[in-house]
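Re: that backbone. Tokens:
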């Protein structure tokens, strides 16, 4: 026969069950509290930014990063191998057109140009000589004296130039001696010609030597054409030398700000070395970069908006690089108001390239929440005192609006301020 369970044992068993049930109940309560806390919080309405869903037009754009740069900036390079002798300015100076910036050692170049000038005169004498159809022996000799005098003058210049180069350590004693020998030899030759000319004047004052045969005329005519062509080529070379010499006078090409200058007095500079940079800091443009996947949406002549904080500046794309570099293409935006007070060289800006128009679409204001087309979870005001998270599909955008594809209706009020703090919440209470 079964033994009867004592009253004390039954009481203990009942109490144990009550404790178990109580623990379960308390756990459920705690779980409900935690769940409520997870799904519901509260926030002050004044701390939020709302956007009402409206129907309207969106001018679709793609965004790019940009940098403000001077509208005009010119790099001045040295056109010759030379040495910096003097510097007249410093970075930040205002300069006018023609303001001297620095001085190069131009003695060798100037000497070379003078040699060309002498050679030019000599070649003109030679052409004049050929153009004389009925030359006498005496006039020919007179011309030889003139040509020889020109040659001697050139030798003299070369001799002085070699002496100058030797003093700078760029020449050699042998070259100086050779130049001096050439000069002295030329002097002797000139004296001989002059003496010969004096003799001919005395002996053959009336004895003209005319050599004007027909075949000689033809030969001389052909020779004259060749010499004329050679002279034209020489004149072009001389003009180029003159232009180079003028460029070597380092001056500002326009009224601007001197933003860089090589101030190393005495430094040797080779042809093409940067000497100075002048910039127009009263007018600006924007250099922008964008991923090359948007290349077909960025074209010269296209409209662009540049944002500086809350400021919006209209602009037009003036040029686009034809090649992609590291997955990026570059383009230039010319601003309608290129002297706006907010513009500063080097300032980072957002650039929006406008490329399409969508009419009659649902839209909300663009803000930091938007990172491109796709599905979002946004808080929508549900009544006066509650926000409810809702799945929303967003489409194209511009700097002002984002297209609503689905999930919202006209009149809905959507939170567009930062809600990362509440990403795990489903509902939020609004507080006044």
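Recovered sequence:
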């Amino acid at each position: 026969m079964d033994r009867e369970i004592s009253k004390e044992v039954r009481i203990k068993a009942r109490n144990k069950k009550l404790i178990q049930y109580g623990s379960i109940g308390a756990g459920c309560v705690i779980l409900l509290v935690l769940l409520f806390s997870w799904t519901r919080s509260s926030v002050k309405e004044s701390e939020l930014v709302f956007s009402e869903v409206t129907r309207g037009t969106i001018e679709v754009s793609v965004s790019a990063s940009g940098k403000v740069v001077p509208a005009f900036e010119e790099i001045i390079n040295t056109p010759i191998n030379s040495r910096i002798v003097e510097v007249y300015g410093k970075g930040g100076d205002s300069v006018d057109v023609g303001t001297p910036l620095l001085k190069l050692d131009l003695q060798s170049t100037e000497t070379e140009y003078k040699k060309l000038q002498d050679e030019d005169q000599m070649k003109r004498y030679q052409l004049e000589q050929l153009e004389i159809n009925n030359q006498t022996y005496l006039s020919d000799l007179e011309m030889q004296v003139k040509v020889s005098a020109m040659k001697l003058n050139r030798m003299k210049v070369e001799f002085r130039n070699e002496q100058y180069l030797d003093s700078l350590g760029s020449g050699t004693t042998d070259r100086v001696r050779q130049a001096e020998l050439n000069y002295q030899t030329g002097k002797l030759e000139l004296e001989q010609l002059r003496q010969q000319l004096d003799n001919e004047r005395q002996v053959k004052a009336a004895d003209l030597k005319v050599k004007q045969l027909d075949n000689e005329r033809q030969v001389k005519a052909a020779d004259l054409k060749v010499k004329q062509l050679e002279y034209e080529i020489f004149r072009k070379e001389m003009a180029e030398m003159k232009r180079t010499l003028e460029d070597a006078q380092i001056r500002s090409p326009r009224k601007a700000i001197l933003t860089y200058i090589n101030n190393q007095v005495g430094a040797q500079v080779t042809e093409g070395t940067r000497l100075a940079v002048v910039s127009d800091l009263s007018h600006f443009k924007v250099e922008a970069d964008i991923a090359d996947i948007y290349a077909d949406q960025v074209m010269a002549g296209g409209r662009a908006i540049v944002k500086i904080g809350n400021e919006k500046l209209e602009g037009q794309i003036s040029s686009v690089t034809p090649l992609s570099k590291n997955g990026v293409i570059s383009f230039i935006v010319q601003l309608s108001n290129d002297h706006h007070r907010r513009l500063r060289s080097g300032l980072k800006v957002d650039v929006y390239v406008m490329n399409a128009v969508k009419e009659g679409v649902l839209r909300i204001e663009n803000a930091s929440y938007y990172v491109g087309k796709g599905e979002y979870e946004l808080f929508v005001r549900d009544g006066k005192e509650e926000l409810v998270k809702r799945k929303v599909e967003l489409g194209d955008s511009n700097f002002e609006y984002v297209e609503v594809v689905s999930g919202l209706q006209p009149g809905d009020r959507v939170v567009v301020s930062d809600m990362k703090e509440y990403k795990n919440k489903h509902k939020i209470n609004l507080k006044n």
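The helical segments are 7-39, 107-131, 137-168, 173-203, 214-247. The chain has five helices and 18 strands.
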